[in-house]
Amino acid sequence: MAIKEETKMEKIISLAKRRGFVYQGSEIYGGLAGTWDYGPYGVELRKNIKGMWWKKFVDDRDDMYGVDAAILMNQNVWKASGHVGGFSDPLVECKKCKHRFREDQLEEENRKSNKCPDCDGALGESRQFNMMFKTHIGAIEDEESISYLRPETAQGMFVNFKNIMDSFHPKLPFGLAQIGKAFRNEIAPRDFIFRSREFEQMEIEYFVDPRDQKKVTETFDTLFGEQISFLKDLGLSDSKIHKIEVPDADRAFYSKRSVDTEFDFPFGQKELLGIAYRTDHDLKSHFNLSKVDLSYYDEDTKERIIPHCIEPTFGLDRLMLAVLSDAYTEDEIDGEKRVYLKFAPKVAPVKVAVFPLLKNKPHLVEKAKEVFQMLKKEFSARGINGVMFDDNGNIGKRYRRQDEIGTPFCVTIDFDTVEKDAGVTVRGRDGGKQERVEMGKLVEYLTKGI
Ligand code: ATP
In which band, very low, low, confident or very high, does the pLDDT at 1 lie, cut at 50, 70 and 90? Predict the structure, then answer.
């Protein structure tokens, strides 16, 4: 069933709230613009995405080192990285309604006519606005005590380069990986969790030998390929994924090559993730300012070099939104409209829900609880999370709820299960098809499907 793209976002936001995925931040106080809180299923969905990422890029490789750096860092980190001087967006303010906009994101006609998109008032002069959240460390607020909430996780890895070298002595090429929060005082946060002021990044700083540029190019392409392969692991539709080679004029000053991956969100094709060849910009800048040697000694050639860095970066919130919007589906079953999230089973927050057919029949409830505990134990042994017991409302309501959560399988315990040992009913989410499965084969049936 075709869904109008203009209304799709509203439907997704409403479902995300109704079913406990995403809430407005500080909602009971009227909210705080650009912040979002994640509810139980949001947490599970994010945990699954992060877990798959960590497994693919860290656990399953022997050239990656995990890091979890502090969010607050010495202000010199941000001086060296260029953020204090240059991490800014062009801001314009409407003289009439005082609304603020990012100049580079205004529609062409508003930019040309210099008119406010909200009230048609005149827009003021453009000025640069630094997006870092500033704070002070300790009791005294002076120049010395300034710190920032990190606007990216990347620098936490560059400043730990030497620590990793000293503890692990890795040979080039190797990478550092980190998952963590980042904060940007966005001028115009919008599009739900797409552009917020507090978000989570999953980043890799992959260090390579700059003397072999052919290998550097190959590594860049391989890492880009792995980014795309991760999107496929998440079950995102191929046709919505677009590779954009970023032109010279739009690239960050330190990047020799950048490729953005854009995705067809309901509000248009927008950046989902990126990869940049940051050269030796970061290590060199930190070396210069800190005076700590951040070079690498090549034992084979007896040379000291500053490694170059390729950075594949992923935004967890944008990935979550891509997964949610791609999964959002409306169809009709037995003449009734329904909404469901067609998650790839691996990312689904709940994988199997177990119900007693009737909640006022103690022997059905008891058996359903027994099957629920058995599945939990068996799944846990296989490293699978997301088994749920549900006896709220009638069976139709439970199916509707599980469809909206995106649960691939529902298992119902009925009279025949208990009285005739005749197995259970397993209902698949996508077609709504029901099958009778013998109890002894249930675990195998479900794990195959997941
Ligand atoms: P944009 O041009 O959309 O502002 P960017 O190019 O500044 O993004 P990067 O600095 O490359 O973004 O950040 C890396 C990743 O972090 C992005 O690809 C995106 O997934 C995520 N990200 C950046 N800013 C935000 C934000 N305000 N809210 C949510 N995710 C973000």
Answer: low
Q: H helices of 174-315, where?
A: 213-233, 281-290
CATH number for 350-449 (one of 1.20.1290.10, 3.40.50.800, 1.10.3520.10, 3.40.50.300): it is: 3.40.50.800
Q: Find the 314 Cα to ligand 1 centroid distance in Å.
A: 8
Question: And the tokens for 30?
Answer: 């009227």
Give the closest residue (by CA) to ligand 1 atom 3: 271
Q: Name which residue leads in pLDDT, 126 or 445.
A: 445
pLDDT (tens digit per residue) in 111-132: 888 899 999 999 998 888 889 9
Predicted TM-score (pTM) above 0.90: yes
pLDDT at 252: 85
Task: Please check whether residue 450 is in contact with residue 428, taking contact to mean a CB–CB distance below 8 angstroms.
Answer: no
Instruction: Give residue limits of the domains in the chain.
Output: 5-74+151-324, 350-449
The CATH number for 5-74+151-324, chosen from 3.90.78.10, 3.40.50.1380, 3.30.930.10, 3.50.50.60, is 3.30.930.10
How sure is the predictor about 110, in pLDDT bands with cuts at 50, 70 and 90?
Answer: confident
User: What CA–CA distances, in Å, run from 351 to 23, 400, 406, 413?
Assistant: 22, 15, 8, 17
Cα 348 from Cα 368, distance rounded (Å): 22
Q: How far is the CA of 417 from the centre of ligand 1 (A)?
A: 51
Nearest atom in ligand 1 to the alpha carbon of residue 316 is 20
Q: How far apart are the C-alpha atoms of 183 and 186, rounded to whole Å?
A: 9
Question: How far does the centroid of ligand 1 lie from the alpha carbon of residue 375, in Å?
Answer: 39
Ligand 1 pocket, residue 187 CB under 6 Å: no
Nearest Cα neighbor of 200 from 39, 35, 61, 353 is 35
Ligand 1 binding pocket includes 201 (Cβ within 6 Å): yes
Ligand 1 centroid distance, CA of 437 (Å): 46
- If one residue of 35, 318, 323 were mutated to test the ligand 1 pocket, choosing by the most ligand atoms within 8 A of its CB, it would be 318
Average pLDDT score over the chain: 95
CA 154 to ligand 1 centroid distance, Å: 12
